[in-house]
Specification:
InterPro entries: Beta-gal/glucu_dom_sf (IPR036156), Galactose-bd-like_sf (IPR008979), GH (IPR017853), Glyco_hydro_2 (IPR006101), Glyco_hydro_2_cat (IPR006103). By secondary structure, the protein is of the alpha+beta class. The protein contains nine helices and 32 strands. It has an eight-stranded parallel beta barrel, surrounded by five helices. The structure holds alpha-D-galactopyranuronic acid. Alpha-D-galactopyranuronic acid (ADA) binds next to loops.
C-alpha cells in the first residue's frame, strides 16, 4: 500500500497496483456474469476510477477488472483498501468475497495450491439495494472502480489480523496493545513486540479461542504526539513467523468544560472539510495529490480537517499524523431519508462499515474525532435509536476518542445527548440571510445548543461557506463571485476567532471544488456540475478566499 512505513517485513506481500485488464459490462446482470468468460479488451489503472477516464466518463454499470498473480501454496489474503462501491472478488473463477461501501479496507481470502492464479473483480457503481450506503442524491459524484491500493498477502496458518495501539497514559508513557490473530489455537507461539526497533516483549504465549492477545506496556522512551510536535513511534509485533507493524502517537484526546483537549490542553480547531475527488482520478487519490492537499492545509495555517463524508485514504492519514493536522474521520452518509436510515439492512451495512473504518484508521494519532452520518435525520424521533446504535458501536470499538456527527439543523436536533462534541452545519449568507447576519446566526446556534442543555459539550461549526465560480468576479460582489465567498468566510473566521469563545472548532465548507451528482435538481444549483464552495478549485488552484482565510488562520493561529 502507499503508506509511510512498511507494515510487513516478514510476511510475503505483493503489491497488485498497476494496470489491470478491463471490460465495461454496463447493464449486465451481475449474477449472470461468468468471470472466466469475460472479453477483457481494455485496460484500467489500479488504483483508479473507470468513470473518471475519458472513455467511460459518467458511465454507470458493472465493470470487470482482471490481473494475474503467481503464488506459493497456502492461504492467500487479498487486501483491498477501497473498491467503489459494490464488488465481487473471484479467485480462479471462484467467488471469494462480496463487499459494499467503497471507502473501507476489506480482505478476500482463499486457499491456493500455488502457481498462477487469475483474480477478477466485478465493480459496480449503480445505485441499488446491494449498496445501501450509497444513494444517487448525495452531493458528490460517486465514482466507480478499484479506487485504492490492492495487495496480496501469503498467510501462515497462524497469522495476525490486526494490531490496535491505545494510549492509556501520556504521563506514564503507557499504551495498550491488542493483537488479533487467526489460527493455531489451542497451542502456543513466540510473541515479540518491538517499539522503534527496541525489544519490549519477547515471550511464549498461549493461544486460545479468543483470537486476541492484549498487553499493557510502559515504554519509557515514548514522547507525546501533539499538533505542534507530532512525534510518532512504530510498533512491530511478531507472532510465530508472522509480523505486522503500525505507527502510532502517544496522545490522549478528551472533552472537558466545553473544550476538546489533546494531552489535557484545550485545542481550537481551525480548518476545512475535504472531499477525496479529482476531475481526472475520481476518488482515487494519487500520492502526489495527497501530498499536495496536506501541503495546502499547512499553507492555509489549518490544524484541522474533516473528512467529508466518508473514511479517508490511509496515506492521507499518515501524512496528517506527520503534519500534526487533527482529523475528523466519519462514516459514509449524506441526508439519508428517515425510511432509509431506519431500514435494518442499512443499519447492518453501516455497522459493518464503521467496523472497517475503525479497524483501518484507529492507530492514527491525527484522528481526534469519529463521526457518522452527515446531515441525516438526527432531527427525527425515529433517527434517535439508529444514532444511538451507530455511536454506541463507535464507543465500543474505540472508547478513547470523542464521537460526533454534523447536524443539518442544530436548532431542532434530537440526538445531541448521544455525542461528546456537538457539531452544526449552517449556511447563513448563502442558503438564507446575508453576510452581515452571519455572526448572529453563529451566536444563535451556540445559544440554542446551550439552551438544549449541552453547554458543557464542545461545539464545532462543521460546515459553513459559499459558492464561488473560479475566476468569477463582478463589480457588485454578487453571489458566485470569489469576492462574495471571501467576504463571507472572512466574516465567519473573524467572528469565530475574535467575537466568540463558545465555538471550539471550525471546518469551512470546503477545501476543493468537486463534481457532484448528475441529478438535475442538484446540478441546477451547482454551476459546471461542481460544488464550487471550495477555497481552491478542483485542480487545487487557490481562490481569493484561500488567501483571505490563510491570512487570518496564520495570524490568529
Ligand atoms: C451540506 C452538506 C455538504 C454540501 C453542502 C452544500 O451542508 O453537508 O455535503 O452538500 O451542504 O454545498 O450545500
Amino acid at each position: 500500500m502507499a503508506r509511510r512505513f512498511p507494515q510487513h517485513l516478514i510476511r510475503p506481500v505483493t503489491s497488485l497496483d498497476g494496470t489491470w485488464d478491463f471490460a465495461f459490462l454496463g447493464e449486465a446482470d451481475t449474477d449472470q456474469v461468468d468471470p472466466t468468460g469475460i472479453d477483457f479488451s481494455d485496460v484500467m489503472a489500479v488504483p483508479g476510477c473507470y468513470d473518471a477516464t475519458p472513455k467511460y466518463a459518467g458511465r454507470r454499470g458493472l465493470a470487470a477488472y482482471r490481473t494475474k498473480v503467481r503464488t506459493s501454496a497456502g492461504l492467500q489474503r487479498l487486501v483491498f483498501d477501497g473498491v467503489q462501491h459494490w464488488c465481487r472478488v473471484y479467485w480462479d473463477g471462484e467467488l471469494i468475497r462480496e463487499h459494499a461501501g467503497g471507502f473501507t479496507r476489506f480482505f478476500a481470502e482463499t486457499e491456493s495450491a500455488g502457481g498462477d492464479a487469475e483474480i477478477v473483480v466485478l465493480a459496480d457503481n449503480r445505485f441499488d439495494e446491494r449498496s445501501p450506503l450509497h444513494m444517487e442524491h448525495f452531493d458528490w459524484y460517486a465514482y466507480g472502480g478499484i479506487s485504492r491500493s490492492v495487495e496480496l498477502h501469503r498467510l501462515e496458518p497462524l497469522h495476525i489480523d490486526g494490531l490496535k495501539i491505545d494510549t492509556l497514559s501520556v504521563a506514564e508513557r503507557r499504551v495498550q496493545v491488542r493483537i488479533d490473530y487467526t489460527g493455531a489455537a489451542p497451542g502456543s507461539a513466540a510473541l515479540g513486540i518491538e517499539c522503534d526497533g527496541r525489544v519490549v516483549v519477547s515471550e511464549p504465549v498461549d493461544l486460545d479461542a479468543s483470537g486476541s492477545i492484549t498487553r499493557t506496556l510502559e515504554i519509557p522512551w515514548l514522547a507525546a504526539w501533539s499538533p505542534e510536535a507530532p512525534r510518532l513511534s512504530t510498533l512491530t509485533v511478531t507472532l510465530g513467523v508472522d509480523d505486522m507493524s503500525e505507527r502510532f502517537g502517544l496522545r490522549e484526546v478528551a472533552t472537558a468544560n466545553g473544550r476538546i483537549t489533546v494531552n489535557g490542553e484545550p485545542v481550537r480547531l481551525l480548518g476545512v472539510n475535504r472531499h477525496e475527488a479529482h476531475p481526472q482520478f475520481g476518488h482515487a487519490q494519487p500520492e502526489a495529490l495527497l501530498v499536495n492537499d496536506v501541503q495546502q492545509l499547512q499553507d492555509l495555517g489549518a490544524n484541522f480537517v474533516r473528512g467529508s463524508h466518508y473514511p479517508l485514504d490511509p496515506l492521507f492519514l499518515d501524512l496528517c499524523d506527520e503534519a500534526g493536522i487533527m482529523v475528523w474521520c466519519e462514516s459514509i452518509g449524506w441526508q439519508y431519508p428517515v425510511e432509509h436510515l431506519t431500514e435494518p439492512a442499512f443499519v447492518e451495512a453501516q455497522l459493518a462499515h464503521i467496523g472497517e473504518m475503525v479497524a483501518a484508521s484507529q492507530n492514527h494519532p491525527s484522528i481526534i474525532l469519529w463521526g457518522i452520518l452527515n446531515e441525516c435525520p438526527s432531527w427525527s424521533e425515529e433517527g434517535h435509536p439508529v444514532y444511538a446504535t451507530l455511536l454506541g458501536r463507535l464507543r465500543e470499538l474505540d472508547p478513547h476518542r470523542p464521537v460526533t456527527y454534523a447536524a443539518i439543523n442544530a436548532h431542532d436536533d434530537k440526538c445531541f445527548d448521544l455525542v461528546d462534541v456537538v457539531s452544526a452545519n449552517t449556511y447563513p449568507g448563502w442558503y438564507f440571510g446575508d453576510v452581515p447576519g452571519v455572526p448572529a446566526e453563529i451566536d444563535r446556534i451556540s445559544a440554542r445548543v446551550d439552551a438544549l442543555g449541552f453547554a458543557d459539550k464542545p461545539l464545532i461549526i462543521s460546515e459553513i461557506g459559499a459558492g464561488a465560480v473560479p475566476g468569477w468576479n463582478d463589480s457588485h460582489g454578487s453571489l458566485w463571485t470569489e469576492d462574495y465567498q471571501a467576504e463571507l468566510l472572512t466574516t465567519v473566521v473573524d467572528h469565530i476567532m475574535d467575537g466568540q469563545d463558545r465555538i471550539s472548532g471550525l471546518a469551512i465548507w470546503v477545501l476543493g471544488d468537486f463534481k457532484t451528482t448528475e441529478l438535475r435538481r442538484m446540478a441546477l444549483t451547482r454551476p459546471r456540475g461542481v460544488n464550487d464552495k471550495g477555497i481552491v478549485d478542483e485542480y487545487r488552484r487557490p481562490k481569493q478566499a484561500f488567501r483571505a482565510v490563510r491570512e487570518r488562520f496564520r495570524r490568529k493561529g
